[in-house]
Design a protein that fits this description.
CATH architecture of the largest domain: Roll
Helix content: 10-25%
Mean pLDDT: 87
Strand order of the largest sheet: 1-10-9-11-7-8
Number of domains: 2
Distance between the termini: 10 Å
CATH superfamily of the largest domain: Outer membrane lipoprotein wza domain like
């Protein structure tokens, strides 16, 4: 009961929001025809980066992005990396290193993904493992529910809400997770976006 009251308080706090009754279904996609150009991963605190400088192994290595969104390398201190793509970061590091190295060539890869908070999707309430999940390209509600282990036995999945920022305002959508998971009604699957919040209330018994 206390959990339900807390969830309702969170729900009401978010609802200076507009209530929109319907949300577009997830877009069906064949696994081999996904357009990989739509979404680019952004680096965030906690990510582990491999920075490789061609012909300069002594300044290459793995670096953890600090909570302030920066990393320190052998030649360049406090590089601001959060919110950038690996390719953009590689070009910026090349610019920094050009002071010390003639025509440096740098590649950046991400080995452990956290991403910036703005890119994460959050699930609160009656999920088995309520948590923030890193957004991945073409993520759907079903993918998200698998990531958090589904619903608890106390969940009212068909009364769940999806809160999304649209034009600078919180907007609430109804999502029917029980129908999606328990009944296999794939029509209830919807596409997720970075920053989405799913609120799953407790059922009234």
């Amino acid at each position: 009961m206390y959990r339900l009251l807390i969830l309702n308080a969170v729900f009401l706090a978010l609802f200076g929001c507009t209530n929109v009754p319907t949300l577009p279904q997830a877009t069906p996609r064949a696994s081999l025809t996904v357009d990989v150009n739509n979404y680019q991963y952004l680096i965030g605190p906690g990510d582990v980066l491999t920075i490789f400088v061609w012909r300069n192994p002594e300044i290459s290595g793995q670096f953890i992005v600090r909570p302030d969104g920066k990393v320190t390398t052998s030649l360049v201190e406090d590089i601001d990396v959060a919110g950038k793509t690996p390719t953009l970061l590689a070009r910026e590091i090349e610019e920094h290193l050009s002071v010390f190295i003639n025509s440096p060539r740098v590649t950046v890869s991400v080995n452990n993904f956290s991403g910036p908070l703005s890119e994460q999707v959050r699930v609160i309430g009656e999920a088995t493992n309520p948590s923030a999940v890193n957004y991945t390209e073409h993520m759907t509600l079903l993918d998200l529910m698998i990531a958090v282990g589904g619903l608890t036995e106390f969940a009212d999945g068909n009364s769940a809400k999806l809160v999304r920022v649209i034009d600078g305002k919180y907007t609430s959508f109804e999502v029917e997770i029980d129908d999606l998971i328990k009944d296999g009604d794939i029509r209830k699957n919807v596409d997720m976006l970075p920053g989405d919040i799913i609120i799953i209330p407790e059922a009234w018994f």
